[in-house]
Amino acid sequence: MSTHAHAAERLTADDWSGGTFPYHIGHKKLGMWLFIVSDALTFSALLIGYSYVRVSSDAWPTPFAFYPSIIFSTVMTLCLLASSFTMVMAVGASARRDRRKARRWIGATMLGGLTFLVLHIYEWLHLINDYGLKPFSLPAAWLERWPQASPLFGATFFAITGLHMFHVLTGVIYLGYIALRIRRKTHEDVEISGLYWHFVDLVWMFVFPLIYLLSVDFHPPVH
Amino acid sequence: MSTRFGSLGNLMKKQDLILNAVCLLFATGFVVMALSNVRRAGNFFSIDSLFITLVSLMLAGIFMVIPLLWAYENGVLKNLFAAEGDDVPAEALPVHFEGTTKLFLSILGFLLFLTVIEVFLAYVQVPLALMLTILVGLSLIKAALILAYFMHLRYERMSLVYTLIPMLVICICLLFIFFPDSFRIFNLRNYR
Question: Does pTM surpass 0.90?
Answer without folding.
Answer: no
